[in-house]
Amino acid sequence: MIETVNLQRAYGSHVALHGLSLRVDPGEILGFLGPNGAGKSTTVKILTGMIKPDAGRATVAGFDVVSAPLEVKKRIGYVPESAALYESLSAREYLDLVASLHHLPTEATRTRIEDLLTRFELSAAMDQRLTEFSKGMKQKVLIVSALLHRPDVLFLDEPLTGLDANAALVVKELLRGLAAQGRTIFFCSHVLEVVERVCTRIVIINRGKVIAEGSAAAIAEAAGQPTLERAFVALTGTRDAAAITHDLLEALER
Amino acid sequence: MRAAGGASRRGSTRTSVSPLAGLVFVSAIGSLAFAVIIAGASNTLLSVSLLTTYAAANTMMLLLVDFTGTVLSPDDYGILGARPVESRTYFAARFAAVAAYVGAVSVTIALLPALVLGVRVGALAGLATIAAVLLCDLCIAVLVLNLYLLLLRWIHPSRLQRATSYLQLAAATSFYLLYYLMTRTFQGAMLDRLDFESSPWLWSFPTTWFAAFVAVAAGSTGPPWFAAGAAIVMAILCLPLVAGRLSLDYARRLGELTAVGEPPRAARAGWLPGFRRGEARAVAMLVRAQFRFDQRFRMGVLGILPLTGFYLLLGLDGGALNDPFVSGAHASGPGVFMAVVFIPMTLHAALTVSESWRAAWVFFASPVSHARIVVAAKNFVAVYFLGAYVVVLAAMWSYFFERVWHAVVHALIAGLLAHLLLQLHVIVKPALPFAAEPRKGERSATLFAIILVGSMAAGVAPSLLPFVYRSALATIVVLALLVFATAGVEYALRLRVDEAIGDLEFKA
User: Fold this and answer.
1) CA atoms within 13 A on the CB side of B9
2) Of the residues A32, A41, A74, A247, which has the fewest C-beta atoms closer than 10 A?
3) Whole-structure pTM over 0.90, yes or no?
4) Do B216 and B141 share a domain, yes or no?
5) What would the mean pLDDT of A85-97 be, rounded to a whole number?
């Protein structure tokens, strides 16, 4: 379970989070949406213990992220948007490194790593250095690394980036399966169609505050729009998309 | 200036000067050294030819080591390939960039010697010094560029980059060796006493041809005129050489080669003893892989070797190979202690930065104590780098010392002292491995602190040796003191590191 109460964080004079409060229950897949710079990454970084909030409270899996960050980190899996890996390592070595950082037993983990990589169709490449991997292959390694220690809570920031349609389908089904097991999934993405299809509930934030919450249909209805996409634009866009497009086309003609 | 990424404390910003400013600063130090040499030498041609040779070697290494960053980038074609940019335009832009880069470094190196010669010989000689260094460096840049692009026909860029790094290592070794030999040679004879000018071999070096500009400006007649003429002809011939090479087509070729990737090298099996579990295992695995495949880190480690050799050579004069148990105060000058003291600290500094720093998020999202990671990295350096180094020292000393155990005890004391300083370095600047963004020309107060503390320790240690080795009891007491100090500092280190980096945040 994830809960934040009045979460605040600033970078110098820029306020990234402005009293963010939300709650995600076990078994839920929460779609966390927002325009660029809305505070999504800051929220995820606070919840994963990578940065600390200035004020407010956040608990993950029952532990406070500030006072018990290690307890939180034991119970979470994280797929960052950046997909940065130590590419001098092979896929197997990288996962071994992650397993070591989670203090998992070596022998059992070795089998699990091979098993998971095989199921993600990386068995032939598991001893290749990550520098040889395509973006999609690296993304699969990241997803495996997030699942390796069987976390209760998953934070996924654009997890489908670079994956082909088949792999993306597998991941989406996997997320539903994990949620059905009672795990909590925090899903950040800019691809609204995917969020709409995968997530059981959606939270939209803008300028560090929650501005909408509920199912895709409920958000659209509350915003008086026919679709989630339209509702998102209406809630977060400064101007109408049609008007911006018109201006762009006109600028190109000048 | 901009803040660097990676692991950092809340609210803190790691700032760094621009790469060119860093280079200019280093060049200015070289300029000062040569100004002193030229001021003290009466043989102008010889001293200026040393200057042009140094500047040419410096330019060559700069371009070779950072070729893709400075001269031709594999990313260029990806950015410009789909745009209507002519190869000629590309050449002009790239050549201007290289010329500005080389020009800034060359002029900085030449500036102070030019001032000295301007005052001593005349304004024309001063200007000729700048022209000589600048033209010589531009010619070298063109030749290096051609050589590199020629080699790219057969060698993958990654391999070539690796090879040039080793070349840099060899050049550094030669430089230190040359410096040592020169200082020994000039101990008894000043530069101006050597009659190189009358030796015909001096004219066989193209860098002397450029130095002849100064001799001509000073009013010399005869050979300097021919040499200066040859230098100008060489410079004119170099221009068409570069025109065909520095092209967008070559950038495309470089981009294609880089995209294909180097043939994979197998991962290494087996584990390092003492680092089998948890954070220690993770750190050991990462450091080993980075050493194999991260060129920057590997060169950071291997770059210690020529410096070590240099210190050892310096130590020879101070009695580095004399048995301290026998020869007392006259044994083991500061040179060898410098080597032992600097190695672990420099290695630890190299361990903290990496081009892959963005991947350090994994240390922040995992349930690990950052302090344990830092300590594991320190221990890895201590065991596998410092430990290996101390064993080599002990083996070497055991050949020269009267008794093997003398060598073992001496190496043990040196090793414990070095480890103590490594611990202090980690206390002063605790940092996660490969988690900071590398920045060229980064201000490094730490480096100066390392040099200061290291020099003090290395300077004091030899004078204490007679007391340490006076009796078996004294040696045992010192060893025990060092062991206790190590244990005490280790305890303090764990407390301090936990406190110091407990609030580290990850900036990407």
Assistant:
1) 10
2) A247
3) no
4) yes
5) 92
Q: Do residues B188 and B196 touch, judged by C-beta distance below 8 A?
A: no
Decide if B128 is inside a domain. Answer: yes
Same domain for B232 and B137? yes
Of A45, A52, A84, the CB nearest to B359: A84
The answer to whether the beta carbons of residues B217 and B125 sit under 8 Å apart is yes
For residue B205, the 8-state DSSP code is S
Q: Do A49 and B266 touch (CB under 8 A)?
A: no
Domains and CATH numbers, chain A: 1-75+151-216 (3.40.50.300), 86-149 (no CATH)
pLDDT band at B101 (very low <50, low <70, confident <90, very high): confident
Taking the C-alpha atoms of residue B458 and residue B339, their distance in angstroms, rounded to an integer, is 9
Q: Which two tokens stand for residue A101?
A: 């950082």
Length of chain A: 254
Do B367 and A74 lie within an 8 Å CB cutoff?
yes
B272 touches chain A (CB under 8 A): no
Identify the pLDDT of residue A7.
93
**Token duo for residue A92:** 């197997």
Confidence at residue B19, expressed as pLDDT on a 0 to 100 scale: 61
Name which of B10, B356, B364 is nearest A87 (Cβ-Cβ): B356
Cα distances from A209 to residues A19, A46, A206, B440, B496, in angstroms, run: 6, 15, 5, 39, 38
Alpha helices, DSSP H only, in B303-380? 304-317, 324-327, 334-352, 361-364, 370-380
- Beta-bridged to residue A33, according to DSSP, are A204
pLDDT of res. B449: 61
- What is the domain range of residue B429? 278-507
Give chain B's mean pLDDT.
76
- Residue contact B293–A88, C-beta within 8 A: yes
Q: Taking CA atoms, what residue in A is nearest to B372?
A: A101
This model of the complex carries an ipTM of: 0.91
| Average pLDDT estimate for B37-43 | 81
Residue owning tokens 């590199």: B148
In angstroms, the CA B416 to CA B502 distance is: 28
A44, pLDDT greater than 90 = yes
Structure-block tokens of residue B119: 């005052």
The 10s digit of each residue's pLDDT in A192-230 is 889 998 999 999 999 899 999 999 999 999 988 888 888
DSSP 3-state assignment of B280?
A: helix
A:137-176 residues touching chain B, CB 8 A cutoff: 145
DSSP A239: S
* Spatial separation of the C-alpha atoms in residues A235 and A193, rounded to whole Å: 17
Q: Which residues of A93-106 are buried (b: 16+ CB within 10 A; e: fewer)?
A: bbbbbbbbbbbbee
